[in-house]
Design brief:
The chain is an alpha/beta fold. The protein has ten helices and 13 strands. The strands form three sheets. A six-stranded mixed β-sheet has the order 5-6-7-3-8-9. α3 crosses α4 and α5 runs parallel beside α6. The longest helix is centred in the middle third of the chain and has 16 residues. It starts with 8 loop residues before the first strand and ends in a 17-residue tail after the last helix.
Length: 320
């Protein structure tokens, strides 16, 4: 796509803190975040409610200065060196704010005028498959088409680092898949992508590495497989009046929404015991579902305070 990033990491964050307000009313939204985004990879930044994800992203984008800590984007300070960083990055916000009365081609021409070295408008129209809609007003585009236009503007400056903030929020499944394909294409072309998303399946599908924030800190990092490692598997079925107490390796048993839910550290053993018990008594396990650890189960454990990573006093309390 363009020259390779010389540094191993496109983004490096160390000890990032961000505080809002002063005195007794002050609170810390970001509490000592360390984050590495390897050049040429796709990294997903996830966060529970009020985790401080947006506050972190704003500092990386150069929209706000950190209260403490250091941030380097492509080896530069995103605030002090904002002009230089801006030329080498592309940022996709949740909402673009483009005029609905302009056509796709007019919008791209307008955006090109804000860049120092834009790619040709027609090239971007072809690249994002907008040829049939080039003379259509933005107001008349579908959700997926509008998002492709947003991406065309984001990529027009041939960025080394692409920051995508909730790129598929509100899109239908087909449009989401189109955006996923575009992100895969960016990685294949050598770009670095930092993406935030509320969709866990999206993060698992796209990201080489995941960073999960909770209460102002990153509490889990790694590949989807690494993050799920060590978390319990889940067995569930329609609620029964009686369930055996000894199923082997079961760490938790609860009733949720009319279903019996078991957490186990040995899925095969617990499932075998359960099926043997049910078979011996002629019990049918309606809606039986058995799943290995997933990103969803880890994320919910963090959000519910069941993950050991969140059981520290300094992570308690609410943040924005």
């Amino acid at each position: 796509m363009n020259s390779e990033v010389s540094d191993e990491f496109a983004v490096r964050v160390r000890g990032l803190r961000r505080t809002y307000g002063t005195g007794a009313s002050a609170f810390e939204a970001v509490r000592g975040v360390d984050l590495d985004v390897r050049a040429g990879s796709v990294t997903a930044l996830l966060g529970t409610n009020g985790a401080g994800k947006t506050s972190t992203l704003e500092v990386i984008e150069g929209l706000a200065a950190p209260t403490a800590g250091t941030v380097r984007v492509l080896g530069l300070d995103p605030v002090a060196d904002r002009a230089a960083v801006r030329r080498r990055t592309g940022v996709l916000l949740q909402r673009s704010g483009f005029s609905g009365d302009l056509t796709v081609r007019e919008t791209l021409r307008l955006w090109a005028g804000t860049l120092s070295a834009p790619r040709p408008v027609e090239e971007m129209i072809d690249r994002l498959d907008l040829g049939r809609r080039a003379d259509t007003k933005v107001l008349s585009l579908s959700g997926g088409e509008a998002r492709r236009l947003d991406l065309a503007c984001t990529l027009m400056g041939d960025p080394e680092l692409v920051v995508l903030d909730e790129p598929t929020t509100g899109l239908d499944p087909e449009s989401r898949r189109e955006v996923w394909a575009l992100i895969d294409g960016l990685r294949e072309a050598g770009s670095t992508v930092l993406v935030t998303t509320h969709y866990l399946d999206e993060a698992e599908t796209l990201a080489d590495r995941l960073e999960i924030m909770h209460a102002g800190r990153i509490v889990r990092s790694g590949t989807p497989t690494q993050i799920a490692e060590g978390h319990p598997s889940v067995i569930s079925f329609a609620r029964l009046a009686q369930v055996p107490s000894d199923l082997g390796a079961v760490t938790d048993l609860r009733e949720e929404h009319g279903r019996t839910v078991l957490h186990t550290t040995d899925l095969q053993t617990s499932l075998a015991h359960l099926l043997a018990w049910a078979g011996g008594r002629g019990v049918r396990l309606e809606g039986l579902d058995a799943r290995s650890p997933s990103l969803e189960s880890v994320f919910l454990a963090i959000a519910d305070g069941r993950d050991p990573a969140v059981h520290t006093p300094e992570l308690e309390g609410s943040v924005r």
